[in-house]
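Q: What would this chain look like folded?
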Amino acid sequence: MKIAVIALGKIGLPLAVQFASKGHEVVGVDVNQTVVDLINQGQEPFPGEAHLQEKLSELVPAGKLKATTSYAEAVPGADAIVLVVPLFVDSEARPDFGWMDAATEELAKHLTPGTLVSYETTLPVGTTRTRWKPALEAGSGLVEGKDFHLVFSPERVLTGRVFEDLRKYPKLVGGLSEEGARKAVEFYEAVLDFDERPDLKRPNGVWDLGSAEASELAKLAETTYRDVNIGLANQFARFAGSQGIDVYQVIEASNSQPYSHIHMPGIAVGGHCIPVYPRLYLWNDPEATVVRAARAANADMPDYTVGLLEGAYGDLSGARVVVLGAAYRGGVKETAFSGVFDAVRSLQARGAVVTVHDPLYTDAELEKLGFTAHHLGDAVDAAVVQADHAEYRELAPEALPGVKVFVDGRRVSSAEQWPGVTYRVIGKA
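A: My prediction, written as structure tokens:
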């Protein structure tokens, strides 16, 4: 097959590589010329994705994968087009379709008959049918269901382990017609491999959910579940801490029977998925009080964690406080909705002098994010762990000279590692 992948970011590029590794001819489209040039040189444009560089080094020289900024080069004659352009959401849960609208408009201009179009960007329910179908038809002059087929198939992978996750989880598809869904199942079966999953009631593979709307809701549901679960864990942790109870023993005990799956509490819920997709769900279902309450509870956790520091340290005016971790999660160089921003704001509101450390970021990169860079070995009065980087698990007091209070927002350490220092962790007095 000839396949076009629109947007070669941290999901799109691994997808393009996966498709090409199955023997298909893949052309990727991206608006960033630097990204395109690096890919065509066989170089990964961003670090941290397992096996990406080795696969690029094999596929690009072999002519199986190339990149371009031109839709006219990639789209005409394609058997399948997969679009993974970012969708942004503001703090009021309003989706910003700007980039996706622009990409859809360009795609429509060059769409030719016989093509399967699959959107993988997570969307509010109904978007595929009510927004993308009329836009593609208007821009191409073609008729969906007759001249081309449109489906929604959400990405279900985490950056850093995309290839592993593509094999591990069923690929969900939902079409606007039975024929479109059938073609989508055939397509994804031809480009993906799946691990055996004896834990599933039906075989791992491509699952047709019956409609684009069901497929859209499935992605929102699985991520919103996690946000709600974490919100509940955070509520348990706050109560347990106030009562002198170790919430981690409680969670372990609760999860020892098969009907409880309580997640772990923490300083923040970050990334492109969990903080964002519940807002897309709320766009469809604004009366979802459980979802809204969980999102508010999780959004409050950075300030609550700083409150733990204040309670242990006292007045933070003039205190030198380092926030450990700018990334939203350990080992991933990404700050999307990271708790670092709210943690720093909360500390500054209390008068603290705040610096930020992250082993994945240079001083210049931290300063570009609006932070003052910290170097381990510099004197501080207190520290707050925001990201669970592996490096922080081995951290000791000599790395933070003068530290009096260490607030572990990710439970990466223990009180035993901080002799003479007041150690606090969320959910444990």
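The first strand starts at residue 2 and ends at 6.
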